[in-house]
Structures are given as structure tokens and as C-alpha cells.
Amino acid sequence: MELVTKNLDHLGLVAGMCDEIGLVETIDGLCGTQAHNKNLTFGQCVKCMIMNGLGFVGRTLYLYSEYFEDKPIEHLLGVPVKSQQIDDNVLGRTLDRLFELGVTPLFTKIALKAMQVIGIQVTSLHLDSTSFHVDGNYQGAIGEDESKIVLTHGYSRDHRPELKQVVLQLITSNEGNLPLFMQAASGNTSDKTAFSQIISEHIASFREAVNNRYIVGDSALFTPDSLSEMKGSLFVSRVPHQIKKEQKLIEGSQKECMIPIGEGYLGIEHEVVYADVRQRWVLVFSEAAYNRECRTLRKNFLKGSEKELKSFTQLSKERFACEKDALKKAHRLVSNFNYLKVKGLTVSVVKKHGSLGRPKKGVEPNTVAYQIRGIPYTELETKEAMEKEKGFFVLATNDMNREDFPMQNVLQTYKSQQSVERGFRFLKSPDFLVSSLFLKKPERIEALLMIMTLCLLIYSAIEHRVRSQLCKNNEFFPDQKKRPSQKPTTRWVFYCFLGLHLVFIDGEKNRVTNLKERHQIILRCLGPPYERIYYSEFW
């Protein structure tokens, strides 16, 4: 009797969600079968990449065969296949095929179907972008005149300005944090320009498909072009601090005139017209943000004061040929100070020797030079004036119905923007797939971004399904401290499923070992597609 075990772990949950939303069928319906596919379709290859991406092993593309060596890949895919068949050539051709079909429309089709299967009710869509740095030289396979992303330098959110990058633009749902739209863009793409284009090309169709009410974004969404494109839609956005109306609103703010709007926030609203759009601006004060920003201000004030003091000290040691040049440079330097002021700014006359080297004994200085003198100091009023403006921000909406959409709702809708930011944190996690992309062509990088976002889709869908069903079934799942919870994270659920093995006796599947009550709670929530993977009576 031959006994073999394979590590099933949490991959059954990933495979089950892929099956439930019909991911393989959707992709294969558009891609067709793969030539020289080694028994794998394009959809099955994508499913393999998602399982690897959510395996939290951080392995690059050429290690997929090794990754699946100890996994029951036939059981997870439902087709006879060996791990050696999942090689970089097969997966590379899959990425090429995804790019040919267009990753954005393909992803959107999969995501909208997943939303319907999971039962997500969308009231607001959240738009944002992030960047991923890339290493190495990349040569595109298509002509330079064709549309594709360009790997180039741009504003680096990873604080790696020396590296080229690619930008990922994302739209997520407020409920479930499901990504519903992804689009790759060149590394130097401006959010303000890109968001306006996305709204122009896609928002109308999304409003029809998901019946959402609001478009939500950060200050990059609040541009005249974007506002013009959203005239038929309701929006909630943060007003950029560069806008003078916003600055004046904060400068003239008085907390005594603001009213509590919950969770430590105060608010007051004003009706304005900006970019020919009538809208409500909600001035919000956050006590937590005020304390946080004041701490940062104190650090910056100290560092800034020390830097400006050093600059003035160096200037006071410098000697000038004439008094006018000395004063001109001093006024130019002091006018740029943000933290220091200089009292008694004057020019003093000093004498020096005109020749180089040590002067002879008894020789008097024969050349006149000029030096700056002054007393640098800080004013408490300057720091207090800066602190006075901390903790404030302005939200804008064109929903003028104050009764149905009061200030509290405006704030809560904007705070849901954290959903897309959580997605970016997930994608940038060092445990997930690759934080730097190592591929041969920009086209494959664009396709890999779609795979990464599909991983986020599966991850978020599992979390939403588990949480909603735990509440519906009135069941609880133990958290890290063994306390009952109805809001476990997918990461914690995945961790709890580590150590499950599928046993084969003489090549035949027998059972999954180490199944415990906590596993059965999750499987009851997820239902038959997942029970089929973990319970032998379903095989």
C-alpha cells in the first residue's frame, strides 16, 4: 500500500471561490483552448496563478512548477495534470493571451459576475491609484505606435524614484471591498488626468451595471474636467488644499460654530459653486487628526528651525564685496524661512588682508568686506497659527439633499474610500506574489497586474461571504485570542487552514486530515462548492 499526502491548506477555499464565480468558464469562453496547452486551458492557468498568488509564498513566475509539487493540483483543478506542466512557457503564453483580449474589459466582466454571485449591494464606487516599481529592461512585443503602458519614472508611492514604475488604477465597491475595475497605466500617468478619462469612459456603464449612487475619490478626483464629466452622477471628494476657497474656509473656521457629526468629528457646511457645479462643501474637524498633525508639526518645526538656523549661520560667515549684495542675499534667504524670523538684520564692515596666505607681522588689513548680522528667533504665534489650521479638511458633494444625505453621511461615504486603500496595501504586502515585477515584456506586466487584482477579488469575496454567513447563521469563528468573532479576516482564515492534507492511498483520494470544528464552521458558511473539496463524501 502506497501512502502519499499533499498539502491542501487554504487553497481549497481559493479554488472554490474561483469555481463559484465561474472564473475559468468566463476566461475560456473568450480565450478558447490553448495551443500546445499540456492539458491546461487559459482559464485553468489563471486559476493556478491565483492559487499561487494567494499561497503567500512570494515566488516569481518561473517557480510555479516547484510550488505545485506538493499540492493536490488535480483535485483543485478537477482535471488530470502534473505540476511539471505548469511551467513558465504555458503561463507566459497565458499572460500574452490575456493582454491580447484586453485585461480591463476581461477583468470587469469577471468582477461584475462575482458581485452578482456574492450578492453585493453597491451604493458607492471608490476610485484611486497606486504604483509598482519594476526592475530590469523591458522590450515590448508590439509596435511603438500601438497603445500600451510605458515603464518609466514618475511620482513613486514606494519612495523608489530611481526605479521605473507602472501605475494601477482601481475602482472598488463600498460593500465587500470588491475590485470591480482595474486598469494599468504608464509610470508617469497623472491621477488628475487619468481619473477624468476613467469617469468619461466607464462611469456611465458602471452606474447602469451596479446601480451605484456615488463616485468617491480623493483630491485627485476634484478637478474641473472630472467635475464636468460627473454632471450626471453624484460624487463625494476631498477638496485639494491648493484651492484658495478651501484655504480661506479653513483659515476662517471656528470650532465653536461647528456641530458634532459623530466619532470625534465636527462639521459645518457651505454651499458653493466651483467649476460651474453647484455643490456642498462640508468643513470637517477631526480631533484625532488634529493631535496627529500637531505631533508631526512639532517634529517638523524643530527640524525646520534647525535647518534654517544652520543656513543663516552659514550666511553670517560669508563675506561680500558690497553692502547691497549682502542685504540682497540675506533678504532672499530670510523671506523663504517658514519657522524662523531674524531681528536686527544689519550689515557690518570687516577688514581683511587682500593677499593670500598668512600676513606678515605688523601689516594691517587693507581690504574692506561686509558680513550679515542678525538675531534669529522663533515666535510662538507662528507655531500656534500653524496648529490652528491642523485637523481640518473639506469634503465636497453635488448631492444637495441635506435631509437624505446629511453631513454625517457625506463623511461616512468618504471614509469608505479606505476600501480601495486596503486593497492596495494587500497588493503591496511582501507576503503577496511580487512587490517588484520581474517579467520580460510590459504587456505581461499589464496582464500580471490583472492576475494580482483577481487575487484581491477572490480574497475580498471570501471575506465578505464568510462574514455575512456567520451573521446569518448566528455562528462565530475564534479569533487570534480564541474569542468568538463574526468578522474574521481572510488572512486569519487562511492561516487557520494551514496543516490540512489530502491523503492518497495507492493513487486514489481518501480523505482530508486534521479537519477541526473551526474548519467546519467556515465550510458551512461557504457551502457545497467548498465542502466538495474538503469532504470525501462529496468526491
Characterization of the model:
With about 550 residues, the protein is α+β, with helices and mostly antiparallel strands. Among the domains are: about 5-100 and about 445-539, no CATH class; about 235-355 and about 365-405, no CATH class. The chain is built from 19 helices and 16 strands. The chain has helices at about 10-20, 25-30, 40-55, 65, 75, 90-100, 105-120, 190-210, 225-230, 245-250, 285-315, 325-335, 380-390, 405-415, 420-425, 440-475, 490-495, 515-525, 530-535, and strands at about 5, 125-135, 165-175, 180-185, 215, 235-240, 260, 265-275, 275-285, 340-350, 365-375, 390-395, 475-480, 485, 500-505, 510-515. The strands form 4 sheets. A 9-stranded mixed β-sheet has the order 4-3-2-5-6-12-9-8-7, with helices on both faces. It is elongated. Residues about 140-145 have low confidence and may be disordered.
Total E-strand runs: 16
Biggest sheet architecture: 9 strands, mixed
> What's the tally of helices?
19
Morphology call: elongated
Secondary-structure-derived class: alpha+beta
Average per-residue pLDDT, rounded, comes to 85
Low-pLDDT stretches? 141-147
Oligomeric grouping of the chains = single chain
Binned, the helix content reads 40-55%
User: Distance N terminus to C terminus?
Assistant: 21 Å
Radius of gyration: 30 Å
